[in-house]
């Protein structure tokens, strides 16, 4: 069998980042069973030989027509595959897909016919949106961070920017490295079109959005950066919970301290 990553160090580098992040998700307890998804737009690493690779399987519908994905290629975690297995064998637990010319379907081209993630319509709709906006973001990550999800089990943290401001105030790094904050999406059926639409609409203002009582969806230039944004947010959630566990409501950084941070780091909000 030929391996698509062989003699393609740049592409292998991107897939290695997926494997590394998948391992972190498992170690953090954010990826029970098949929980979470990763897709990466790898079109820039595709050469003519890859463009000529025959499909391993018949074309499948995406469930939406996504015109900005014409000619695009993605690494996708496989449906029902475990992050802890992606960490060790990313190409046996995921695959590379090519969008078909009608922009309404895809074929798998490497290495094995591993069906992509159940959240493919939402992931690809997000990539379509990112391209339409001229965004440099290439990776999208869905995961189940424990403390952040726990916070969505009460209405007060579902109000716009309440969780964002609280999380930013727990430790300076969180605003510095997640400067657009955490968008909130009320509960919707996983994998539904409504979920995809709501996610895209929140991504206009946030890089990380919370699906109430389910998990986060993050986008960034690569999967490591997307992971880092979720990681700093969840660190803040852990600090908040640790303070509550010690029996007090944490003070948080003051408004002056937050303002000083934003000016010093030239942050948008
Ligand atoms: O694919 O986490 O929301 C596994 C999931 C779906
Ligand atoms: Zn999920």
Give a quick rundown of the structure.
The protein is an alpha+beta fold and 269 residues long. The chain contains ten helices and nine strands. It folds into two domains: 136 residues, 3-Layer(aba) Sandwich (L-fuculose-1-phosphate Aldolase), CATH 3.40.225.10; 120 residues, L-fuculose-1-phosphate Aldolase (3-Layer(aba) Sandwich), CATH 3.40.225.
Summarize the SSE layout with pairings.
Layout: H1 9-27, E1 37-41, H2 48-51, E2 60-61, E3 73-77, H3 83-88, E4 94-99, E5 105-110, H4 120-132, E6 139-143, H5 146-151, H6 162-168, H7 172-177, E7 182-185, H8 193-203, E8 208-211, E9 215-220, H9 223-245, H10 255-264
Parallel strand pairs: 7-8
Antiparallel strand pairs: 1-3, 1-6, 2-5, 3-4, 4-5, 6-9, 8-9
Helix pairs in contact: 4-8
Zinc ion binds next to loops.
Task: Describe the fold and architecture.
It is a single chain. The chain has helices at 9-27, 48-51, 83-88, 120-132, 146-151, 162-168, 172-177, 193-203, 223-245, 255-264, and strands spanning 37-41, 60-61, 73-77, 94-99, 105-110, 139-143, 182-185, 208-211, 215-220. Strands 2-5-4-3-1-6-9-8-7 form a nine-stranded mixed beta sheet, with helices on both faces. The protein folds into two domains: 1-136, Class II aldolase/adducin N-terminal domain (L-fuculose-1-phosphate Aldolase, 3-Layer(aba) Sandwich), CATH 3.40.225; 145-264, L-fuculose-1-phosphate Aldolase. With 269 residues, the chain is an alpha+beta fold. The protein is elongated, with a radius of gyration of 19 Å. The mean pLDDT is 97. The longest helix has 23 residues, at 223-245. The protein contains ten helices and nine strands. The protein binds Dihydroxyacetone (2HA) and zinc ion. Residues 35, 142, 144, 190, 214-215 line the site of zinc ion.
């Amino acid at each position: 069998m030929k391996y698509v990553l062989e003699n393609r160090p740049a592409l292998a580098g991107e897939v290695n980042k997926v494997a590394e992040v998948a391992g972190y998700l498992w170690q953090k307890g954010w990826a029970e069973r098949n929980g979470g998804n990763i897709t990466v737009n790898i079109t820039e690493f595709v050469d003519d030989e890859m463009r000529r690779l025959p499909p391993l399987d018949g074309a499948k519908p995406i469930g939406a027509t996504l015109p900005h994905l014409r000619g695009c290629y993605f690494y996708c975690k496989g449906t029902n595959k475990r992050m802890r297995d992606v960490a060790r064998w990313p190409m046996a637990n995921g695959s590379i897909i090519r969008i078909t010319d009608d922009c309404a379907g895809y074929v798998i081209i490497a290495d094995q016919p591993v069906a992509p993630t159940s959240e493919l319509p939402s992931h690809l709709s997000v990539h379509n949106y990112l391209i339409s906006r001229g965004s440099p973001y290439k990776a999208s990550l869905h995961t189940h961070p424990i403390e952040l999800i726990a916070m969505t089990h009460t209405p007060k943290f579902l109000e716009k920017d309440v969780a964002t401001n609280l999380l930013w105030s727990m430790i300076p790094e969180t605003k510095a490295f997640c400067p657009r904050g955490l968008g909130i999406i009320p509960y919707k059926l996983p994998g539904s079109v409504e979920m995809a639409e709501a996610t895209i609409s929140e991504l206009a203002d946030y890089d990380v959005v919370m699906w109430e009582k389910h998990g986060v969806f993050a986008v960034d230039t690569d999967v490591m950066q997307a992971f880092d944004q979720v990681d700093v947010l969840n660190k803040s959630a852990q600090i908040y919970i640790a303070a509550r566990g010690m029996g007090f409501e944490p003070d948080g950084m003051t408004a002056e301290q937050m303002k000083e941070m934003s000016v010093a780091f030239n942050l948008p909000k």
